[in-house]
């Protein structure tokens, strides 16, 4: 409780959305963008790396999956660390780790060292993603929370496209090692500006650090006043009070499986697993499957980038709809829409690789699937209390990364048996299962403060 007698949530929720909130959003979204570029870059550099080291297909696949393995570890640990020691320090160390790891990738002289450095890079990225969700959800008032988190996720397809453009222009000139070096540079800039992001007052209050929470809140309120150009702020409105939970490293994880949150945990873990199993099982093979259908390598890369552009209007539409329709219906629609379009995309081979059908269905598939990503990143942190929010987001992401590890492997096993049509039908089935889970077990969170959601 702050010195003014109001809780951190009551003081934060009454603030109008201001330029200060948008600055916080831009800083966090930039980190998300550069992380996404690092993750996506392997899609475009793998061919050059495979040639230099003389890798087999299996070895190249292992290297491509190494970052996802790291992300499982990073996402699992970072949530518990952030719920125990605070959002800001874990947030900052994640950027240090992926920046250093990207630099180390540029120095790798063997595939074993490169794999190790990609695992370290994945740990840093795995740490960053769930903390970004938690911080943004705790700093942005409920009236704009869904829109801003969904927009943050939209920097993922932008990062993918930027990685493709960067590799297209730089790969022939400087090679894959120097591209990794270039990607390490933004880490210095992002780390510096992250010092402008405050620790979450909600977390400070939950941890019993009331004086520190009040100090941060006074700073936030002053910056909002300056941003709005006025001295007065709306009066706080009473919100449900959440009991402080004694903090130990494993207490947050235990909370995920308490009577109140068990169903939410099982629901969101299932959705993340099946959604990412389908997503990465398809997208990691998009270019290769195009080549299997008879397209030249240059054509397949070109079409893959074009198809990915569909994700940009997809996340923008999702960011608009989550505050109008709600999280649950948008999640179901994007999953089902992605499944239908994935099935149609897979049938393009049946029609002789018809380019019109392929591009149209591919664009719509990415439109729905990146919309799905935006909803998932919005929905997940809203399901848990401050004492377990980062842990809940981290483990949901980690379970999803297990699905992303298995996706390319399952696709590689299914493709020789069923062909392209069977692969995309399997992906469509994964999205349908995830949609069914949300429909049956999901709860709506639109328009409610994080504290109100703990009372449901």
Automatic annotation (TrEMBL):
Source taxon at top rank: Bacteria
Name assigned to this protein: Niacin transporter NiaP
The entry's keywords: Membrane, Transmembrane, Transmembrane helix, Transport
PANTHER family cross-referenced by the UniProt entry: SYNAPTIC VESICLE GLYCOPROTEIN 2 (PTHR23511)
Topology in membrane: Multi-pass membrane protein
PROSITE patterns assigned: MFS, SUGAR_TRANSPORT_1
Protein source organism: Pseudomonas synxantha
Keyword Transmembrane among record annotations: yes
Family statement: Belongs to the major facilitator superfamily. Sugar transporter (TC 2.A.1.1) family.
Single GO MF annotation: transmembrane transporter activity
